Fold these 2 entries.
Entry 1:
Amino acid sequence: MSRNILITGANGALGLALAEYFFTKEADCRVFLGVRERRERAEELATRFPGRADLITLEITSPEAWKTALAEIEAKTGALGVLINNAGFHEDALLANMSQDQWSRVLDANLNAVFHGCQAVLPAMMRQRQGRIVNIASLSAISSPAGQTNYAAAKAGVIGLTQSLAKESARMGITVNAVCPGYIEGGLPADWTPEHLKALKMQLPMRRFAKPSEVAAAVFFLASAEASYITGTALKIDGGML
Amino acid sequence: MPTRQRLKELMISELMLDMTADDIGDDTPLFGPAGIGLDSVDALQLVVMIEKNFNFKMADQDQAKRILQSVSTIAEALDQKAAA
């Protein structure tokens, strides 16, 4: 049976890799690429998979926007089978210097948006008695680096939400899992210098960052029928870093 | 099939209960240790199950609490709706 998949943050490096992985590995799936203002790379990807990709404008922090987006998807192709909550960003600062806005923006985008997304897709998944939700958390949820109190708290919250919702929805054929990627190529701050990146790699057991496709492969598995007895997990994808 | 019997069979399949319809009395409490022992997750599933199979939508949590007492209370609510 063909599945409808919604990936938020689909214009970013990981979002694009996730979409491409699904297109390649699941021949009849249809992928909805959740984007906001920045959409040029998602548009380019969609042209490479005609008839299988739709861009969908989605302000993830708005419950109303979720309702509208899901109504659009259902009208086009039927209920959603897979939700991948991938969108998010960090805005680092030491807590002593962090503004209330910096705290709230990061919590809104990384944690509250996951709540809105899960709440929006659940009714249809419950009626179908099947569904897959994969939340992209972060290694920061576990390693809690200095300068990321907002981001680490949000991503740790995502893991908590994932595990709790997994228990609530297990009997309904819905699995809810999270992945915790470490450093990903293409997903690193643009202002990090080559020297800094080189020094960072030296600290990693594999001495390299993850390829986006390596994270996508794990997400694809968790979203597959084969992962039917895996729910509530938070999978580290960090090349042995922690 | 009578409503009560249908409800019991749906509950067994949808809530994955390891029992038969005969094990569920019409008036056996659905929740708590003195009854079948359903939990809050089952309650949510019951609401969805009733909506999907009987086109009966609970108005609010209070109504759900009143109706989801036993197979009989659910059947009575469904029969009342059918008669209305």
Note: Chain A touches chain B at residues 123, 126-127, 129, 167-169, 171-172 (CB under 8 Å).
Entry 2:
Amino acid sequence: MPQLAALLRVARRLTPEPASAEDLVQETMLLAWRGFRGFQSGTNARAWLFRIMFNVFHGQGRRELRSPEFPSPDVRPMFQEAVEIAEALQALSLEQRTVLLLCVVEGFTCREAAGILDLPIGTVMSRLSRARRELRESLAPMAKEAYR
Amino acid sequence: MTDDDLDQRLRASILSEDVDTTRLAAAVRNQIYSRRYRGLRWVLAAAASISLAIAVSFAYRVFFVPPPVCVAAVQDHEREIVKGNPRPWLVDLSAIQSLGAKQGVPASVIAVLGTTGYRLERGRLCFLKKQIYLHLVYSKDGAEYSVYLRPLTGETPFQRSIREVSIGAEDSAYFQTNQLTAVFVASHSAGAAATFARAGAKVLQGLPS
């Protein structure tokens, strides 16, 4: 099933529990299946799916309440960076996290992300810029250690 | 750390995680199948309801609604025989047979109906449901019977068995042979028309087509 992994990856960072993320993606796929006639062939199917998912997510009243669970502190060193990045990402506001996930991780352009989130492109760009700055600040101690 | 470094680390960190979608894909498929078949169930239920309604309507028309020609025949019998409206009738057998032949009712039909124990009294043409019928009046034991005959012209007979229909105080019976439509009406006792119709059907179906 195409794009399921990408949708789930983003959904996990929007919702508090894995089950909620799976519910969100499941609802997205069902809506996409039901509304497939409304999809215009030749347009970006991936962006269309993400747009549906964000519509569902916002329709559900943004159930993001707490961060996902992370591995315990005694994680292996090679895993440590991933945990810190995940924590730093989760510390961002939902809006900033969303544009980072779409533009940086999923590779959408700012214009595509603006379409998905139904926002002006300028808003997406400024959120992306702020998100990068805050993420960089959160990860600064780790970066110092890495470069030491 | 540049934007590119940051983006690369973020991407690498998130894309390296294992995303198992097996269970989710199965759940989505199940939902899609169940919804698809739920839609199909509604379609089947609707089709069944429509079929049932059509069947009930058909059965009602076949078994409960009297054929329009019977209704018209009973009304004509009531008007012309029971109330005795003054009309010109032919009473001569050969004249009646000649009149019938002009309308496509063979003389042999009239002749064999006379062998059933009923006596031909008179005849004339009439309209039932905008179609011309030969109206024959027979008598037996002091009671009068109407027989309405019309040749089948290119039609397929659909009422081969005798159908008895009671309309008000009148009793009628109706059947078709390969040659004609015959409606029998009596008003003096229940089943009288059917008795005559059975006798008539017996002799008419013995005629060559």
Note: Chain A touches chain B at residues 1, 4-5, 8-9, 22, 25-26, 29-30, 33-34, 81-82, 85-86, 89, 100-101, 104-105, 132, 135-136, 139-140, 143 (CB under 8 Å).
